[in-house]
Amino acid sequence: MLSRDALSISNVAMSTAPAVVKSADRVLAILDLLADGGPQTFAEICDGLELPRSSAHGVLGTMERHGYVVRRGGTYALGRRVWEVAQSWGGLDLRALVRPAMQELVAVTGETVQAAQLEGAVAHYFEVCESPHPVKLSSRPGARLPAHASGVGKALLAALDPAEARRRLSVVELPALTARTLTDVEDLLAEFARIRKRGYSIDDEEFALGLRCVAMPVRSTMGEVVAAISVAMPEPRYSRAIAASNRAALAETVATIERSLADAR
Questions:
Q1: Alpha-carbon gap, residue 85 to 93, rounded angstroms
Q2: CATH class of the domain whose range is 4-78
Q3: What residues pair up with 122 in beta bridges, in sequence order?
Q4: Which of 147, 159, 180, 220 could lock 225 by a disulfide, CB 3.0 to 4.6 Å apart?
Q5: Which residues lie across from 92 on neighbouring strands?
């Protein structure tokens, strides 16, 4: 039999134990599922988390309205708001951190510089510093484009485990934006292996005719790829020598950003 004192202690422990809020628990479970497994259909989410269909509709609808998930082609993926919240972790604003180095890279190369992160099989461009030239790549922060068709997107996909890259590419459409776009999953996986070996990716008019770019991943002190940076060159200003020079400048910029990441932690 428990003594009065023991019973009091037990009651206090029970009263101070954190309560599980079912709706909040489901939101966090969905975020974890999409972060670990990439885009999922409604049925996959319900089955994977054993959620009632009626409850899942309401939870996903609320998350979509607030920007934590987005619907694309029958699947749900993490939304931009997740990225925005992640950037505030530890007071780190990744966009502000990369901007000075990107602006310096524009000054060195004269070309448009972009930074992106991966959302499923989509590249989310979160910062863009445009070239001063009238003929240039025009882009904007917030754009989302198929990752398989760009240098920065391929750099991000190549950083994934090959099995995970295969899974993500196998559940989405891979449009051919030009005749040069790689759309076969096996061809893309072979390209990712080459990217990992040389340390950078290229876009050889795969996103748009007349546009080439080089891109590299940015890694945290733990080795995690947190973003990728690219330099885009229009065909009239492209040559092998210029491409090599821009690639070297990009490598220096990535190293600068990685040092800034280490200092910020």
A1: 10
A2: mainly alpha
A3: 119, 146
A4: 159
A5: none
